[in-house]
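Human: I'm a chemist; would you kindly supply sequence and structure tokens for a protein?

Assistant:
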Amino acid sequence: MKTTNKLIMFLMLSTSVLANDIYVTQSGNNLILDITQSGTGNTIGSLALPSSLSGGNTDFTITQNGNTNELTFAVNGNNYTGVFDVTGNSNVIDFKCDSGNSTSGCENVTATITLTGNSNTVNLNIGENNDSTGTHATIATTGDSNTITAIVDSPNSILSLGLTGSSNTFGITMSGSGIGEHSATINHTGDSGTFSISQSGVNNKVLDLTTIGNNHSVTITQQD
């Protein structure tokens, strides 16, 4: 099979600020990577943990507009299609996809993350602890100072998170080795909420949560 790698990078550097760094290390086949950065202080990867792609059919689109955005990712392979779109200031996205496993348990992963606002932080770990097959994750935030941590290790998981507001904290864990589907759909509008969501086990787990208001404290555990 013929291997095709394609990299397209477009950078706009401010004359007053020199910092706009990209670190990409890729190895493998059928890679299409489009990167667009505009503004000042944007980075993709870091010296401590450079962005890295390895193997499989990877389709990547990253767009960053604003100031002091940082996106660090490590993908190990199989089939992955991801779109990261960041608009605002001081946003941080840390994405991993079975980065420590040379055989890769990532399988088929589709992740779409959109951030609009300031000081948002998203840490999404897929397949870091166990194999994750057919995972679909969608995270969208609008507002300031939101923190989202999602750990997706179950083989059949669908995560969709819609967030509008400021100073919200989300901790989401999806784990288990069975054939059942773990599905979480969360929509929150408001400020200063704390959410802890856990799905584990071998059977189907379905969560559809919609909340409106401020200062919420929500803890939900679904397990066999």
In short: The radius of gyration is 17 Å.
